[in-house]
């Protein structure tokens, strides 16, 4: 949810909507990684779910990285 609230602020500081969207995702990934690390340390991670979710998540990341530039700026702003 914070990513949705943060994006307009990042858009003001970024050079393009693509850069803003990528930066916003990077910030969210860092926060999720830090939170996930703590949950893993405290034994609250269902590793079976992690194994099941990793392949489609990686595929989405690769497709987004390779073809994200092809998305029109108006769609990113929307």
Q: Domains counted in the coordinates: how many? A: 1
Strand content: under 5%
Biggest sheet statistics: none
Number of strands: 0
Mean pLDDT reading: 89
Radius of gyration, Cα only, in angstroms? 15 Å
Question: What sequence of helices (H) and strands (E) makes up the elements?
Answer: HHHH
Q: Portion of residues in helices?
A: over 70%
* Contiguous runs where pLDDT drops below 50 for at least 5 residues: none
Tally of helical runs:
4
- Give the overall shape, derived from the CA principal axes: flat
Distance from first to last alpha carbon: 16 Å
Content-based structural category: mainly alpha
Folded structure, characterized:
- With 78 residues, this protein is mainly alpha-helical.
- It has one domain.
- It has helices at 2-13, 17-41, 47-67, 73-77.
- Helix 1 runs antiparallel to helix 2.
- The model has no long low-confidence stretch (mean pLDDT 89).
